[in-house]
Design brief:
Elements (H helix, E strand, L loop, with lengths): L21 E4 L12 H7 L5 E4 L2 E3 L2 E3 L4 E4 L3 E3 L5 E4 L6 E5 L2 E2 L9 E13 L2 E4 L9 E12 L2 E4 L3 E4 L2 E5 L2 E4 L8 E4 L2 E5 L2 E3 L12 E4 L2 E5 L6 E2 L3 E2 L5 E2 L6 E4 L2 E4 L8 E3 L9 E4 L7 E7 L4 E15 L7 E13 L5 E6 L9 E11 L4 E3 L3 E5 L1
Parallel strand pairs: 1-2, 2-5, 3-6, 4-7, 5-8, 7-10, 8-10, 9-11, 10-12, 11-13, 12-14, 12-15, 13-16, 14-17, 15-18, 16-19, 17-20, 18-21, 19-22, 20-25, 21-26, 25-27
Antiparallel strand pairs: 23-24, 28-29, 29-32, 30-31, 30-33, 33-34, 33-35
Length: 383
């Protein structure tokens, strides 16, 4: 079973650890400041640059470079502003960390990612967005090859919409705010992996509430320890008290959905989650300084996401001081062919595997027909 711990979209082929330039954005124009607002910094920042945003309120903007955009505590995006990542080239990785939008009433999305062939990593994104008319998602993802949300809190009338993308949603909460007919998360034509995340539709009154998760023509894997799950909104009285409604927690429209049996999921609509065959996966033992080798034998053509879970936290720092630690590590995504072995190897080192014991290697395969399969777990003993 895939680990219910954090899934972090980090690759084992690290980018350059030395940034070209660090740009400081400071509304107050303090010592070392490069700019007093965000747009000019985004305009000049190149791949591997760091853009550090000090406390203050800032305008939105767009980037197409694999930069590290780091918001300090107290640095917020002003109401009516959108931050966007567009046309990120393959082979580049963009990190967005700490973005917050405190505004309750919004007229534009807070964050959107579009047409990204490279990897987009979003951490600690906090939004609260209420609309009187349902016209846009608070966070929108379109045509992105690999995007991850980790430790995020998304709340709003329509918190998250995903189209034609591959998305990891981990250690987060997504909550509908007002019942206007939109789910908390709506995924269309998408591969969606959800781990340790609470998704809840909006509460309403007079028997009206919203769906938690809607998957349409998509494949989804939902896993976790059971502490978080998928829920519809409740109907609440102005005099106090809320009660369940007939609104489905999970609305499955022409999709394949796998749900870890430990994850609580409320009422279902559409096709129920179904069991699927497991392609074979083999792995060998490895000692410190030796190669960890795996072979995946898929049953169908498609793409695979290979992951490793461990008894202790990985210490993996692809961006130097921005250390990332987790008990679950997504290694890579790669096309696969039926009956052809998909090998992977990496050197075991103390920095990446600071523990003894065993690893569990597992893969999710999305075939060309839209089916989703989960491999058997293969244990790897470290010694």
């Amino acid at each position: 079973m895939i680990s219910p711990r954090t899934v972090l979209a980090v690759c084992l082929v690290a980018p350059s650890l030395v940034a070209q330039t660090t740009w400081i954005v400071d509304q107050a124009g303090g010592p070392g400041a490069s700019f007093t607002d965000l747009p000019p910094a985004l305009a000049v920042a190149q791949a591997d640059d760091i853009v550090q945003v000090r406390p203050g309120g800032y305008s939105g903007g767009a980037t197409s470079a694999g930069i590290r955009l780091l918001f300090e505590d107290g640095a917020v995006l002003n109401s009516g502003q959108t931050l966007a990542v567009e046309d990120l080239p393959a082979g580049q990785r963009m990190l967005l960390a700490g973005l917050s939008r405190p505004s309750l009433l919004d007229t534009v999305p807070v964050f959107r990612a579009e047409r990204c062939a490279g990897q987009v990593v979003v951490e600690r994104l906090v939004t609260m967005s209420v609309q009187f008319l349902l016209s846009f998602p608070t966070v929108g993802v379109q045509d992105c090859a690999h995007l991850s949300f980790t430790d995020c809190s998304l709340s709003g009338t329509f918190p998250l919409e995903i189209e034609r993308s591959q998305v990891l949603l981990t250690d987060s909460t997504v909550t509908g705010a007002t019942p206007l007919g939109a789910p908390a998360v709506w995924a269309r034509d998408t591969l969606l992996l959800v781990s340790e995340t609470q998704i809840s539709g909006a509460d309403g009154s007079l028997g009206i509430s919203d769906v938690g998760l809607r998957v349409e023509r998509s494949a989804a894997l939902i896993t976790g320890s059971g502490a978080r799950g998928i829920a519809a909104g409740k109907t609440c009285s102005r005099f106090g008290g809320c009660s369940p409604t007939a609104t489905p927690a999970l609305d499955n429209l022409q999709s394949v959905v796998i749900v870890d049996p430990r994850v609580p999921v409320g009422r279902l609509a559409g096709r129920a989650p179904i069991p699927v065959p497991q392609p074979a996966l083999r792995a060998n033992g490895a000692g410190l300084g030796e190669e960890l080798e795996t072979e995946l034998w898929p049953h169908a053509n498609g793409s695979a996401v290979l992951a490793v879970s461990a008894p202790g936290p990985f210490q993996w720092t692809p961006w130097g001081p921005l250390g990332l630690s987790a008990n679950h590590l997504v290694l890579y995504t790669q096309p696969v062919e039926a009956g052809a072995a998909l090998p992977f190897s990496t050197i075991i080192n103390a920095a990446l595997f600071p523990f003894e014991g065993s690893l569990t290697v597992q893969a999710v395969v999305l075939d060309t027909g839209g089916g989703l399969t989960l491999t058997n777990p293969a244990d790897v003993v470290l010694f």
